[in-house]
Every structure is written in C-alpha cells, then in structure tokens.
UniProtKB/TrEMBL annotation:
This is Putative mfs multidrug protein. The keyword Transmembrane helix applies. One of its GO terms (molecular function) is transmembrane transporter activity. It is a multi-pass membrane protein. It is found in: Membrane. It comes from Eutypa lata (strain UCR-EL1) (Grapevine dieback disease fungus). The chain crosses the membrane at residues 12-30, 42-63, 75-100.
Length: 140
C-alpha cells in the first residue's frame, strides 16, 4: 500500500516544483540581508525558479495521468475564480495584519505593546469568522 502511494509521487514534477520554491525562498531570505539585491546570486535565483516552474508545468502537461497537479484543474473557471478569491482574501488579511500595527505606531504614536493590544479585535474577529465559515461549510 505504501509502495503504491510512493510510486504515485511524480518524481520529476516534485523535483522541479520543490526546486522552484526553494530558489524563491532563498531569494526572499538572503536578498537585501546577506547579499545585496544586485548580487549575481540574487539575480540568478528568480530566473532559475522561473525556468524550473516552466519545467514543472511542462512535466505536468506531458505526464498528465500521473501529474502532481492535473492540468484540467486550470481550465475550470469555478476553480480558477475560487483560487483568485482565496488569494485576494489572503493577501488582504496578511496586509492588514502587517500594516495595521505599523499604522498604529507611526500615525497614532502608540507603543508596540499597545499596537498589539489594538490589533487583538481584528485577530479575534478573523478567527471567529474562520470558525463560523468552517462550521457553516460543514452544514452545507
């Protein structure tokens, strides 16, 4: 059973996807802190990530029966709209959680602790909304 599941893992697809993600994470981690943004390593890594992502997409299309991510998912409008909505919602939440405390500190002039306390209603509201949404989805 385990051998069958491991055989279903698409090695080429997995290697290209992980390579692409690792390259992007290395850029985000080292760019501007360990190496300047104009360093050859930092410039080359996103290009390598892009090439590996193209290879991943090609592998997924060529071996679509055993693909990690089946290409037919990307032609369904409902899935693509859902993906975009989730991405936009997540970006909104993350930007709020990042910039609201900075706004409290720079505009209102409060301390970091006070800024965290003022952020609590937002976090509690988002957690309650997520729980309510999860319970509501189970009922449907």
């Amino acid at each position: 059973m385990l051998a069958e599941k491991l055989a279903q893992l698409h090695g080429a697809g997995l290697a290209t996807l992980l390579g692409s993600i690792i390259c992007l994470l290395l850029v985000l981690d080292a760019g501007g802190s360990k190496y300047p943004w104009n360093n050859g390593r930092i410039i080359a890594l996103p290009m390598i990530a892009f090439v590996l992502m193209i290879c991943f997409i090609t592998v997924q299309i060529v071996w679509s029966k055993t693909a990690t991510v089946t290409p037919r998912i990307f032609v369904q409008r409902s899935i693509m709209v859902t993906f975009f909505a989730m991405f936009a919602g997540g970006a909104t939440v993350m930007s709020t959680l990042y910039y609201l405390p900075i706004s409290f500190q720079s505009v209102k002039g409060v301390s970091a602790v006070e800024s965290g306390i003022r952020l609590l209603p937002t976090i509690i509201g988002q957690a309650a909304g997520s729980l309510t949404g999860g319970i509501g989805i189970q009922k449907v």
